[in-house]
Every structure is written in C-alpha cells, then in structure tokens.
Amino acid sequence: MARALGSWRGTGEPLGTALAGAVREALLDGRIRPGSELPAERRLAAALGVSRGTVTAALARLRETGWVHTRHGSGSLVRLPAAAADRVAPLSATGDNGSMIDLRRAVPAAPQKQYLEATLRAAERAGPVLAEHGEPRPGLPELRAVIAERYSREGTATRPEQILVTNGTRAALTLLAAHFQPRLTAVEIPTYVDALHVLRGTGTRLVGVRVTGDGWDLEQLESAFAAARGHLAYLVPDFHNPTGTLMSPRVRHTVAELAARYQVTVVADETLRDLDLREEPAGIPRIAGALLIGSASKSVWGGLRVGWIRARASLVRDLREHPLAGPLSAAPMMQLVAAELLRDPYPVLRRRQDELRAQRDHLCALLDGDDRWRFTCPPGGLALWLQLSAVPADTVVRHANEHGIALVAGPSFAADATLTHYLRVPFTPPRPVLDRVAAVLGDACAL
C-alpha cells in the first residue's frame, strides 16, 4: 500500500485529507485494484509513518464519499463509488477524485454495468477469435454486419463490405486523409480539435466555413468548396462539435450539390449523431454521396477505441490495403465488445440522452438572460458554445483554472486561430458541478 500511494505528502492539505486523495488517485490510476482489502489502521499508519489518527480521518472521509466500504469484523475494501460508476461524467470532470474539474474534453464515462456485462459476454465467446492470427482485417464480420444493419435501418442501405472498422474516428479520418492526400480541405470554424491536428499533420491547407449556433454560412460554404475543388471537406453535420448545431436538410442538400459541382469528397463525422437531445427527435437525413465516419466514443466510451468508415465497397477494398490500415485498426477483442454493445445500444442511449438533456437545460437556465454572454441552446451534443460579450476567452480560462476548473478557449477549435471571445462549456458534469462552473464564469466575466 505504501508503494502504491507513492509520494503523497507536501500538498499543503491536512495529512488526513492528503492521504484520502492519494488513495483515490491510486485507485483511479490502477495502482490499487478495486475490491482490495486495506491493511489494519495501526499497520497502515506504521508503514506510512503517520499517526493512527491521520489514517482514521482519511478512511472516514473515504467512507463518507463511497470510496471505502467497511464490513464489521471483515476489514475495509477500496472501491469506486456507486455514483462514479453510474453517471455520464467521468470522474475527472466532477472533482470527485480530489483534483481539478477537467472540462477540456467533452466526453462521457463508460456505462459501467452494461460495459462489463458486454465484456463478459464477449469473453465467453472469444474462442474462435483467439484461435485466429489476430492480424488486422477490415473488421470482424459480425461487427461490420451490426454497423451496416443500423445504417440500413436508418434509411441508408449498407452492406457489411461497405464498412471498415478502425480504432476510432481520428483513425478513420487519418486513413482517409492518407488515402486521398488532399492539398486543400474545407473545414468548419469552429470544429473538432483533434480533426484539426490530424489534417494539419497531412500538410493540407485548411479553408474555413463559419458555423454558429444558428447554422452554417452558405456563402462561405460555397467559397470553401470552390477553393477545395477536387480535394476534401471535413464536416460535422449532426450536433456539430463544438456548437451542438444540427445541419438542416436544406443545407445538407446544398453541401451535396456543391460537392458534385466542385468534385469535393465530403467526409461527414457522425460521432455525435446519437446524442440527440430534442424532446421529439425526428429522422436526420444524411448528406448524399458523403463518406461517413463514426465511433462508439460518445455513445458508449472513448476507451472502447472502435470506430468505422462507411463508403462504397471499392473504396473500402482500397483502404484496407493501405499501409496505415493495420496500425489504425481496432483490436479484435474490443470489436467483440463493441458488437455486443452496438447490437442494442438504445437502453444506454436513452438514459444518456435523458441525463444530458436535464443537465443541458440546467446549465442553460443558469446562464440564460445574462448580457455578459450569448449562446443558443443546442439540440444535441455535449456542450454549450458560449460567445463572451467583453472578456476574452483566455482570460476566463485562466480565472477558471485558478479556481479548479479547466476549460478550452475558442481559438483551439479554429483553423485560423480566431474565435477569441468563444468558450466551450461541457454540460456532462452533474448539477452541483454545473452550479460551480456557472458561478466561476460569472466571477471571471465580472473582472
């Protein structure tokens, strides 16, 4: 236990508080296994070189917050709190691990019960997969069939041979960019941060299209497609990251027309498509002719590392022969787990949608009617896109950081380093954390 906790003193906190934080961190980092029995208080105090009272205070704090369970006569066990295993927000976004509230990534935690059950089912029938060579292929046949069937059910007729499984959306975009080698790529401003990193890494020049909470700028859309003639466009039409905007059918039709006119290959990122928070969701059409990429990172968990490309079968055959196809493929066991979860994702999705809708509405109510910022309540996604009226976003980020909240300012999402008065505020944390976030934003904008 002493080795697992490492160097935990010197935080400036009372020793009992610091020790409780060290146990939480060690559990989250995997240095202590959930379900492990703690040594007796006297032995632990001697090993750590502290008083027994310090250990008693630390364990009392951990029991109160659900990190330690004590059974009379049977010792104490460390565990993840039930609330941590149950909710949408990862622990890093709640401050429950005793550290900063980290909202730099708008991501969910895993649905633990369903994920563990799917993992057990996958392990029970993994024999045929484990008996194979394990070398990368376009994806396990059953997973490709599950993904294809869902596309077909949603109105986009798809065969399994039109699906290529990757180890996430970034991998899918990396493979497509490596295949097409575009000199120019039309992108939204703002857009998904990691997509900008991937595209910049290819050496492509980025041409921007402005997107706000009210939608896409059609004049800039045509200009960008004209500039990217014969090359690529990367768009997030479904609950756009980071604005949460949903592209209208009219704009989708315009995108398809412009793509045909200027011979632009459109890559539509559908990672957030499942996070539809409208009270009465209607069907969402797709952009005709677009290459579709998606993943289970937002609907299930980013750690699953399973994504895919939906394209014509001939392109999938070409992509699977690319030298990067192997390194960017998903591990077979992860694909088995994904097949279990994606076969019937709706119980998990409905719960996530309900929680996120309630948290979105709570944050919107906290921030509404204040002339220090403007925003549009998004119909889906994971975050609010806040336009600050006077204070620059980096000033707000610095102030929030000083008060234990990590946020990202608008320029990180912009291909041209603009959007200096914009801020992404995820609504993934529970309400008490959102209350704190709103208070800190208010203080920062009053400076």
Automatic annotation (TrEMBL):
Alphabetized UniProt keyword annotations: Aminotransferase, DNA-binding, Transcription, Transcription regulation, Transferase
Lineage top rank: taxon: Bacteria
Signal peptide (from-to): none
Domain HTH gntR-type, first and last residues per copy: 13-81
Molecular-function annotations in GO: transaminase activity
Entries under InterPro entries matching the protein: Aminotransferase_I/II_large, HTH_trans_reg/aminotransferase, Tscrpt_reg_HTH_GntR
Name the record gives this protein: PLP-dependent aminotransferase family protein
